[in-house]
Amino acid sequence: MEYAMSILAGLLFAIGVYFLLEKQLLKVIIGTVLLSHGAHLMILTMGGLKKGAPPVLEDYISSYTDPLPQALILTSIVISFGVTSFLLVLAYRTFKKTKTDRVDQLRGSDDD
Amino acid sequence: MMISNSVVLPLLLPFIAAILAAFFPKRMAFNRIFSLITYVVTLLICLFLAQQVFANGALVLETGDWQAPYGIILVADPLASVLIIITQLVALATVLNARQTLHSYEEKAYFYFFFNLLIVGVTGSFLTGDLFNLFVFFEVLLMASYGLIVLGGRKAQFREAVKYILINLFSSILFVMTVSFVYGITGTVNMAHIAQRVPELADNGAITGAAILLFIVFATKSALFPLYVWLPKSYIAPPTAISIVFGALLTKVGVYAILRVFTILFPGLSDFTSVLFLVIAGVTMVFGVLGALSTNNVKLIIAYNIIPSIGFMMMGIGIGTATSYAGTVYYLINDMALKAALFLLIGVLVTLAGTTNLKQMGGYIRQAPWAGWLFFIACITLAGLPPFSGFIGKYLLLQAAFDNGHYLLGAVALLTSLLILFSVLRIFIYGFWGESDDSPPSDSKNAAARFRSIVPAGILLLFTLFLGLGAEFVLPYIDVVSHSLLNPENYITPVLKE
């Protein structure tokens, strides 16, 4: 199962990087979203996928799933959610100001 | 117990200031004064913390009383406690200057909120004791810097922001992946605990891979050789007050992370990493200074000069002896204060001239003599002429380089210093000296505004002067820092309490 997850994460990464190299801002943002999903899957895989019951705080449980990767992913998801929404606003404002949504057309002198 | 609790204060006070700034974004007088008081108080607390750390060893705060490898911890070791002092100093200078260099609509667009949050992120990165929280604090400071870089919303800012954000986003994603690799290999994210586990591991290949991935991440953040292209233009796009904090603090957090990770987590550099670091250091110096020589935009010259400084610090990390670490730390401290002062003074010049093109300037020393001469002092400090503080950092680094047989790198460093001097003195000669075309006498209102740039720049330069002339007094402390870097157990033992 870990292998399948690793391949899936790699696939998401590959597609994410492909989109990151696109010229349209919206596609670039989709790329960053895919990249962060790949990273989250990777964290989950790194902790080991299923080893037993959920980590409930009780004395007699000896086999439980590692809670730390899930805590890390939760933090990471919140961060990537914030960044994505910021990027969407930035792309919108960039389009409003520069009248283009293509990265390669955002040229101009420094003093404008 | 009380003292170790106070480790959280340098984070907490700017955070409270940030929250208040978020609630009262239009009350400028309140925000200015409250931020000012916050940073004065935080500076005093940081000085107190440093005094405690140098007297009794590293302070550790286990949040919520969760024992070290399990809970989130804050660690103030000698390196971190020195760096947070300079951070607060730079923050203080920026707050003093913000009112002058920002338009009022920019100031009201949540400047103080983002700025205070940036300081929380920077201070947090210095203080945190686990790798994942390093990522979180990096992300806090990056989010704040994303907000600051587009503050005001001019066209050039959007263009640079897109590049800046995408580069940093990619490296952040790589960072969180690498943290998960490290967790997969060692089973912990606590830095002291990782440091303890790494020597026990049989699988060296995986941990080397993780180390190199971490290096790539921090190299992006600190703008080392192939990954520096995004830096210069994105640092000059926002208003001056923001360039000050960016130039002074952001890349240095990357350097700090490299220093921390490669001294504590993966100590004893292999020959390969050492050579890699030294080559990258040399190439970074050369390319950075070539960039500074290639342009006539005064702000860009200063921004490009950030890059060779990072090269110098990298050189010390690559050599990896007590002298070279001392040189790196000395240079790091000096550079944080100095870059802030340079951006402050260049802000005065740009305001006076109304342009950033060096070719259209001349003779402004008559209107702003203080700014001119302070800039001159900053220039020779940057180039490392004795008796100023840049000299002592460079002297230690060069001594370490020549003692360990890195003659070529030493020669490159000397040549780079010469070219740095040339690149910044060009600003002094053509911008401040030279003919002025019947410049109108400056009115008193402008003079008062300029005062608010010159005073913080003067404070920062006084600090670097103190570092240079008071080297006798400072060096023992730097020695403590470099020895704590050479002996990771000084960090591991207080954290894990064994």
UniProtKB/TrEMBL annotation, chain A:
It comes from the Bacteria. This is Multisubunit sodium/proton antiporter MrpC subunit. Gene3D superfamilies: 1.10.287.3510. Keywords: Cell membrane, Membrane, Transmembrane, Transmembrane helix. The keyword tRNA processing does not apply. The keyword Cell membrane applies. It is found in: Cell membrane. Belongs to the CPA3 antiporters (TC 2.A.63) subunit C family. InterPro entries: CPA3_antiporter_subunitC (IPR050601), NUOK/Mnh_C1-like (IPR039428). GO terms for cellular component: plasma membrane. It is a multi-pass membrane protein. The chain crosses the membrane at residues 6-21, 28-49, 69-92. It comes from Aureibacillus halotolerans.
Automatic annotation (TrEMBL), chain B:
GO terms for biological process: ATP synthesis coupled electron transport. It is found in: Cell membrane; Membrane. The chain crosses the membrane at residues 6-24, 36-59, 79-98, 110-128, 134-153, 165-186, 206-231, 243-266, 272-293, 300-320, 340-358, 370-388, 408-433, 454-478. One of its GO terms (molecular function) is antiporter activity. Coiled coil: none annotated. The keyword Cell membrane applies. Its main location: membrane. It comes from the Bacteria. Keywords: Antiport, Cell membrane, Membrane, Transmembrane, Transmembrane helix, Transport. It holds the Pfam family Proton_antipo_M. Belongs to the CPA3 antiporters (TC 2.A.63) subunit D family. NCBIfam families: PRK07691.1 (NF005818). This is Multisubunit sodium/proton antiporter MrpD subunit.
